[in-house]
Amino acid sequence: MKSALITGANKGIGFETAKILARKGFFVYLGSRNLENGQSAVENLKAEGLENVSAIELDVTDQRSVEAARAAIGEKTEVLDVLINNAGIAGGFEQSSLETTADQYLSVFETNLFGVVRVTQAFIDLLKKSPEPRIVNVSTSMASLSLAADIYGNSYPKRYVVYQSSKSALNMYTLNLAYELRDTAFKVNAVCPGWTQTDFTGHQGTSIPEEAGQRIAKYALIGKDGPTGKYFSEEYFPETVCPW
Predict the structure, then answer these.
(1) pTM score over 0.90
(2) Angle at 218 between CA 18 and CA 190, to 5 degrees
(3) Which of 2, 64, 139, 236 could form a disulfide with 190 if both were Cys (CB 3.0 to 4.6 A apart)?
(4) What is the pLDDT, as a whole number, of residue 94?
(5) Tens digits of per-residue pLDDT, 63-74?
(6) How far is 216 from 213, CA to CA, in rounded Å?
(7) Of 167, 187, 219, 230, which residue is the catalytic one?
(8) Catalytic choice (29, 160, 163, 219)
(9) For residues 69-80, average pLDDT
């Protein structure tokens, strides 16, 4: 049985992605900063007949928590086939290039970038043992520098400088990771789930969590001829890649 780890999987998009992969026959580890929340999510999945799931306490902002999660999963499996770096924060709905403090940037980057680095580096040894390892970094079309450069256009109804900056940095990390793993079986991609109705967005959006989960799971399930080092936003760019 293949296995997958999804960070921030106790609710929202992460939870729906976990459900999809579990239905596809994966054993799914649901990373959750609060273990009780993770266990509650697991019970919900088991109530739907999905027994191949387990909650893992995982705070991506805490190196010791990441290492403990790696040790716990390592006791259960020697191979990890899929890593989905889903955990993320917005940093509030009022963000200004002139007024938002450096400490506020640091808080968001701690989760959205540094957390991804911590988790990826901690689990890379298990991923390397998979014949078809996949890494999906959950990004956003709002991280596109090309779209943001149209400063008089209508690319976004509103801009969020801290959140966008953190995800743009994540995109660059994704590209460099794909570059370093280019001659291996790894597929590493950045995926925007779309504007999704979850707690993260105040339940606003044009997509539901199930649709967003499908967009992410798609790139966890790609075959050996699938893309790597790409940036996808299928809600907004269904026929092509998202512009960097």
Answers:
(1) yes
(2) 95
(3) 139
(4) 86
(5) 999 999 999 999
(6) 5
(7) 167
(8) 163
(9) 98
